[in-house]
Amino acid sequence: MLALHAIILMIIQAFVWALLAYCILSMLLGFGVLDIRNRFFYSLFNTLARVVEPLLTPIRNILPNTGGMDFAPMILLLLIQFLVYPLVNRVFAMLIYHPAF
């Protein structure tokens, strides 16, 4: 049971790192530091976008238009930090201490 808990937390942490990499890469591409015509950066950005965008799009639909600033990654990171981690820990604590459930 503890191994499954550790695996789920590692998957969530990998998603957080993918989200941070996506944000940094999109800034570098937006400011022209990196070129989207480079195949490596294009494939990396495309892969990260396919992983991250399905969770960012609903948040962007809820948030008001703020011009050029995108607050969806910050909201998603806060949701993960304050909702997902405690929920996963509480569920596994309940399963460990009350195996009848």
Walkthrough of the structure:
The protein has 101 residues and is mainly α. It has one domain (1-100). Helix content is 78%, strand content 0%. The protein contains 3 helices and no strands. α1 (2-30) packs across α2 and α2 (39-62) packs across α3 (72-97). The two termini are 13 Å apart.
How many helices does DSSP assign?
A: 3
Contiguous runs where pLDDT drops below 50 for at least 5 residues:
none
Which oligomeric form is depicted? single chain
Structural class: mainly alpha
Sheet with the most strands, sense and barrel status: none
Radius of gyration: 17 Å
Fraction in beta strands: under 5%
**Count of discrete structural domains:** 1
Overall geometry comes to: elongated
InterPro entries: CCB3/YggT (IPR003425)
Protein name: YggT family protein
Organism: Gluconobacter thailandicus NBRC 3257
Keywords: Membrane, Transmembrane, Transmembrane helix
